[in-house]
């Protein structure tokens, strides 16, 4: 998969124009898990019909979006998720990017093959610990067969994300040693509160950050994170949510991000002028630890500072991940 030169050229224009680059699209608020730290699901919520989701993709494409994150809740609960990915990838001749953020519990061999065929570029799988905890069932013990399935079959890039908090921190070194032979990228998201602000502090987190970094696409704001983990929220930055980054909720409304709804407008009625009104500093910026929002805001807002990381991200994977794929295990039968 990966990105072609046309994507890179078009994406570069987003640094200078006033069109959105990146959209997170909710396909359902329902989830098969109930992680204690999560504020982004509603148990039993209905699925959004595929045709409605396609209309939302049409509108986002008209606005200029090049990167789509499909999420929930749990996006794999949507039985037509592969069809939705294929529809999004058909836009712009496939020179855009599609990602799924999932807990991985619902992966099957058929679904992985369907997502390959659909043209999925990235999958981010949330795995927090070796064993299930009171806060989260997203453990290696629970999802390892699915990860082996991905290692064997996936043609898209897989990233393993751990929500960094007090429970996951203690055994993270052991976790990384256990999964070191899997051909994936690894990284953190930083636990946030219901408003999106950083919810952890302390030297133990700083040590892990120094050793492992975050994700390649967001490591360039590592100094911000270090300061926030020490309790210093004073460093200025400009959030580009509602302008370059759009969050489309289950009702089809555009809001700044999952946690903040000061801006809330129907996607089918929104125009570029309304989006341009969000080209301003926002009151929630101090302490924000939302990696997705930070990635787009820093990449497009500080392009000269982030150029190296942006190029590596555009190429689809870091050199480390390439080497990991070269030593991937031989194909074998894996229970779905």
Fold and architecture overview:
By secondary structure, this protein is of the alpha/beta class. It is built from 13 helices and nine strands. It has a nine-stranded mixed sheet, with helices on both faces. Strand 1 (22-26), helix 2 and strand 2 (67-71) form a beta-alpha-beta unit.
How many strand segments? 9
CATH topology: TIM Barrel
Q: Beta-strand level of the residues, as a percent range? A: 5-15%
Assigned CATH class:
Alpha Beta
Q: Give the N-terminus to C-terminus distance in angstroms.
A: 23 Å
Largest sheet: 9 strands, mixed
Mean pLDDT: 85
Q: What is the CATH-assigned architecture?
A: Alpha-Beta Barrel
- Look at the structure and name the CATH superfamily: Aldolase class I
Structural class category: alpha/beta
How many distinct helices? 13
In the sheet with the most strands, the strands line up as 6-5-4-3-2-1-7-8-9
Mind telling me the C-alpha Rg? 19 Å
Please give the structural blueprint.
Layout lengths: L4 H9 L8 E5 L23 H14 L3 E5 L9 H9 L7 E6 L6 H10 L3 E5 L13 H14 L3 E8 L1 H4 L2 H7 L6 E6 L12 H10 L9 H8 L15 E4 L4 E3 L8 E3 L5 H5 L14 H11 L1 H12 L4 H8 L10
Parallel strand pairs: 1-2, 1-7, 2-3, 3-4, 4-5, 5-6
Antiparallel strand pairs: 7-8, 8-9
Helix pairs in contact: 2-3, 3-4, 11-12
């Amino acid at each position: 998969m990966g990105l072609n030169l046309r994507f890179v050229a078009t994406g570069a224009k987003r640094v200078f124009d006033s069109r959105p680059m990146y959209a997170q699209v909710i396909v359902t608020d329902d989830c098969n898990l109930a992680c204690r730290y999560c504020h982004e699901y509603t148990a039993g919520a209905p699925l959004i019909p595929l045709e409605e989701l396609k209309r939302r993709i049409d509108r986002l494409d008209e606005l200029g979006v090049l990167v789509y994150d499909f999420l929930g809740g749990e996006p794999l609960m949507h039985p037509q998720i592969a069809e939705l990915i294929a529809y999004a990838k058909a836009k712009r001749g496939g020179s855009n990017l599609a990602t799924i953020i999932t807990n991985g519990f619902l992966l099957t061999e058929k679904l992985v093959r369907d997502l390959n065929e659909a043209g999925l570029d990235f999958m981010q799988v949330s795995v927090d610990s070796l064993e299930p905890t009171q806060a989260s069932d997203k453990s290696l013990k629970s999802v390892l067969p699915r990860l082996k399935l991905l290692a064997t079959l996936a043609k898209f890039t897989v990233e393993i994300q751990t929500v960094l908090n007090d429970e996951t921190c203690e055994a993270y070194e052991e976790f990384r040693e256990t999964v070191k032979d899997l051909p994936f990228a690894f990284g953190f998201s930083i636990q946030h509160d219901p408003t999106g602000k950083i919810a952890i502090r302390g030297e133990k987190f700083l040590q892990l950050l120094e050793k492992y970094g975050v994700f390649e696409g967001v490591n360039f704001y590592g100094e911000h994170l270090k300061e926030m983990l020490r309790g210093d929220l004073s460093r200025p930055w400009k959030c580009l949510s509602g302008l370059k980054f759009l969050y489309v909720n289950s009702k089809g409304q555009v809001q700044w991000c999952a946690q903040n709804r000061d801006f809330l407008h129907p996607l089918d009625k929104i125009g570029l002028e309304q989006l341009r009104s969000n080209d301003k500093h926002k009151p929630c910026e101090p302490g924000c630890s939302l990696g997705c929002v930070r990635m787009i805001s820093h990449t497009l807002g500080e392009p000269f500072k982030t150029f190296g990381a942006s190029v590596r991200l555009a190429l689809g994977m870091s050199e480390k991940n390439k080497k990991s794929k070269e030593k991937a295990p031989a194909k074998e039968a894996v229970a779905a």
